[in-house]
Specification:
The protein has ten helices and eight strands. By secondary structure, it is an alpha/beta fold. It folds into two domains: 103 residues, Rossmann fold (3-Layer(aba) Sandwich), CATH 3.40.50.1860; 117 residues, Rossmann fold, CATH 3.40.50. The mean pLDDT is 96. The structure holds D-glutamic acid.
Length: 232
């Protein structure tokens, strides 16, 4: 059933990652009905060919539309990179909201002139990331770091919030995050962009590793505000 406002917003991702966007949207617009689709059968998407991700994304979007969604959020940076243009072409009646690589705010906030983006290989191959970087990075050096192991960990804890992690989860995840992020900090990065929707699910650990050295940018609240603008 649709809400009084008459909208139902569908979110999809390869797995639990899109929950970071869903939670940010629910915090902003709790009255709007939502639907979440995790394509766990095909997760992870990160290293699949773009054509395959586009095909899977099309099936996910069509499933959400069949369930009555009139706005679809591609709550996955990798799927946005591979499929957002195709989805908009195939379903011109549906507003699609995708994930923007937050290179612009990162470049504006950096004092060291070095920022790092954590994402999947598929996102870094995409036109969107490369155009955004070309347009907004300016004189700032952008380090691209693939962090597929963060996707695996976010799936392993099923997106549970930091406060609910076991001691063993916490120790393991902080070790994994440290191994990936410390070299970026040592290379001078003072802003770390979470360019994959799975990564805000690990933000407690990422912020702990970055404490005092770098700011962490989670784009989910900005995407939530964009969904609200689309609904308005
Ligand atoms: N959550 C996804 C993203 O934002 C993809 C993770 C994966 O399936 O590799 O890129």
């Amino acid at each position: 059933m649709k809400t009084a406002r008459g909208h139902k917003v569908g979110f999809f991702d390869s797995g639990v990652g899109g929950l970071s966007v869903l939670r940010a949207f629910q915090a902003l617009c709790p009255e709007v009905e939502t639907e979440y689709l995790a394509d766990s059968a095909h997760a992870p998407y990160g290293n699949r060919p773009a054509e395959e991700i586009a095909r899977l994304s099309e099936a996910n979007a069509e499933e959400l539309i069949a369930r009555g969604c009139d706005v679809v959020v591609v709550a996955c940076n990798t799927a946005t990179a591979a499929a957002i243009d195709l989805l908009r072409r195939k379903h011109p009646e549906i507003p699609f909201v995708g994930m923007e690589p937050a290179v612009k705010p990162a470049a504006l906030r950096s004092k060291s002139g070095v920022v790092a983006v954590l994402a999947t290989a598929g996102t870094f191959r995409g036109r969107l990331y490369n155009e955004t970087k070309g347009r907004y990075a300016g004189g700032v050096k952008v380090i691209a770091a693939v962090a597929d192991e963060f996707v695996a960990e976010a799936e392993r804890i099923r997106g549970a919030p930091y406060a609910e992690w076991t001691e063993a989860d916490r120790a393991r995840i902080i070790g994994i995050v440290r191994a990936r992020v410390e070299p970026l900090l040592d290379a001078g990065a003072d802003v770390i962009v979470l360019g994959c929707t799975h990564f805000p699910l690990l933000i407690g650990a990422i912020e702990e590793v970055c404490a005092g050295r770098a700011e962490v940018i989670d784009p989910s609240p900005a995407v939530a505000r964009q969904i609200r603008r689309v609904l308005a």
